[in-house]
Amino acid sequence: MKLVVLGGGESGVGTALLGKKKQLEVFVSDYGTIQEKYKKVLIYSGIHWEEQQHSEELILDADVVMKSPGIPETAPIVRRLMTAGIPVISEIEFAARYTAAELIAITGSNGKTTTTLLTHHLLKEGGKQVGMAGNIGDSFAKMVSENDYDPYVLEISSFQLDGIIDFKPHIAVITNITPDHLDRYEYRFENYIASKFRIAENQDENDYLIYDADDPVLVDWLAKHPVKSRLLPFSLEKELEFGAYLNENKIVIKTAEDTMEIMRDTVALEGKHNLKNTMAAATVANLVRIRKETLRNSIANFQGAEHRLEKVLKIHHVQYINDSKATNVNATYYALDSMKTPTVWIVGGVDKGNDYNELMPLVREKVKAIICLGNDNSKIVDAFGNIAELLVETYSMEEAVKVAYKVARRGDTVLLSPACASFDLFENYEDRGNQFKQAIKRL
């Protein structure tokens, strides 16, 4: 069988390695340049590859094509493959075909990384031989080719879900859905919602879907598009027959087989959104039979995700917080909502069609100064120019941090929570967050 891999990044090279191990004829094609570390892996493994071009004759000779998530379906080569009737799938679809392990899949606009990390932590502490892959760490395909994990905890984006056919997680989690990546979905929110819900489309009555019962988008979609899986919602607002909810100072988790409680003040992560992430992860851990005492202890000692409300340093009684992973308005809403002191807010980057209106009440209440960081700050200036006491435009992280240092006073917080993508001034959100941390250390 001939496997063509489009894109020579983490997921592409992982797929190529798994394909080679399964004795498929593998060819990797990248229209851009392939990073040196990935080239070395391909050469060492004896896998044919090309860069800065797509050789159509070789690609259209494939039996199946794995498309990396960053390549849109509108790309000319993808359209030609679809016209030719050649299956174009995602890495998670390909890798899932070669493992019998239990799959736990987590998606959502925000919170999926924290929920994935916490779920992995709970299962690992509970003694499971658990692998963590997908949008985080090594590619799923590379893990399947090299290890014998069971279960897998997978963080999955909508782009990856767009390329599934038979992918069927035993436990699926949707943390929430807010408008994001609409440029990939014809600027139609319902297309993006449908993409996220593909996580449950192959599930049956023996599987579980865990979701936020306080999110009207999720509740409304489920009412109109029922799924076959067993529903285990979580809520901060109401008591539930099954699922996870708050009862005064306790998180209660109820399944058909079991009920357990976790004291709210033992949850290591701060913020209401992290209570929800904890509910989702704890529900998964309960379903896979992690001992309750182990589960409670593991929730209490979890450290959280880098670049997500990460406390960096306190300088002259000013706390600096790195929330570079907040690449949309909803993520920044959670960050601002968790601020307990006057906040100097660093915001901006590549706008993905943001509507800043939902942030207005929080900005009025919590933000004392806004520092814009991006090549084009006009939308942010228009939205908040008349609200903030001080609004400054900057064009480098060094400059933004220096301005924040001058503006902040004893007891304040400096928060990097951009609400935007990072590609104008940085390689990615990790680079942005790392530059923020380095600039603080140089103060």
Strand numbers in spatial order across the main sheet: 7-8-6-9-10-11-12-13-14
Are there runs of 5+ residues with pLDDT below 50, and where? none
Portion of residues within helices: 25-40%
Specify the CATH architecture of the largest domain: 3-Layer(aba) Sandwich
| CATH top level label of the largest domain | Alpha Beta
Shape: globular
Give the number of helices. Answer: 17
What structural category characterises the helix and strand content?
alpha/beta
Distance between the termini: 57 Å
CATH superfamily of the largest domain: Mur-like, catalytic domain
- What's the number of structural domains? 3
The multimeric state of the shown protein is single chain
Describe this structure in words.
The chain is globular. Helices cover 35% and strands 22% of the residues. The longest helix is centred in the middle third of the chain and has 16 residues, at 272-287. The chain contains 17 helices and 20 strands. The protein has a nine-stranded mixed beta sheet, with helices on one face. Strands 15-16-20-17-18-19 form a six-stranded mixed beta sheet, sandwiched between helices. The protein has three domains: 2-89, Rossmann fold (3-Layer(aba) Sandwich); 93-300, Mur-like, catalytic domain (UDP-N-acetylmuramoyl-L-alanine:D-glutamate ligase, 3-Layer(aba) Sandwich), CATH 3.40.1190; 310-441, Alpha-Beta Complex (Protein-Tyrosine Phosphatase, Chain A), CATH 3.90.190.20. The chain has helices at 10-21, 36-44, 56-59, 76-83, 91-96, 112-125, 140-146, 158-161, 189-197, 216-224, 272-287, 292-300, 329-337, 360-366, 378-384, 397-407, 429-441, and strands spanning 2-6, 25-30, 48-51, 64-67, 88-89, 103-107, 131-134, 152-155, 171-174, 208-212, 230-235, 243-247, 250-254, 259-263, 310-315, 318-322, 343-347, 367-373, 390-394, 413-416. The chain has 443 residues and is α/β, with parallel strands linked by helices. It comes from Sediminicola luteus. Residues 307-420 form the Mur ligase C-terminal domain.
